[in-house]
Amino acid sequence: LRFIKKTLKNHADEVVTLHKGTPMTLKAVFQSMNLSTYDLTVDMLDVHADRNTFHRFDKFNAKYNPIGESRLREVFLKTDNYMNGKYFARIIKEVASDLEESKYQNAELRLSVYGKSADEWAKLARWATQYNVYSDNVRWLIQIPRLYDIFKSNKIMNNFQEFLSNIFLPLFEVTNDPNTNIELHKFLTHVIGFDSVDDESKPENPMMDVDAKSPEEWDDEENPPYAYYLYYMYANMTVLNHFRKEQGLNTFVLRP
Asked: Which residues are paired to 15 by β-bridges?
């Protein structure tokens, strides 16, 4: 809340997003929602978590949208938006400096990698190094939403192997030769592990047996079961960790 108010006061005329192709300033975004700095309160932002948040995935997801507006999420909480994640980086730096001041508090913050395209890692690392979001008191955990079925239905990919390759291939390449992407190499030294996120209350057939299709054969519209996702994340990470250890680099944990 403090950050949004401050930014609205000092950077109201900064272009923050495109709406139907036309540039929109921060001021215009808030005007389009009939809001001014004086209207904003913590309750209105509605992003605090209560116990219901962790039972219901839809509620949990909705909390990412300040005031229930996905536009504000895009402006303030994304790394790959119109401003290349400038505000998000500033928020993180403020949180990190608070942690550094209090000395004995540390945070483990999460960033998403979706497996939608192979350049996601490079973009994320570029954002992290460009704004230097590094702090001794912060480590990163990468969360991977289980969205294969959505990518498949939108014809972004043909099979589950493409999803896995988008996530893991860039990591193997940069482990093999850090010079292929120095930014990513640096960024990964502050990443401690991976998490798998989606609605775990959805019923599914958990059978993982000998007949389960391999990832390149998995071209169904349907999402693979949770166990299938986790198995292939685990299998790729195990090999990646052995490789990184041989190269004298840090390794990752799987913490779904």
From this structure: 25
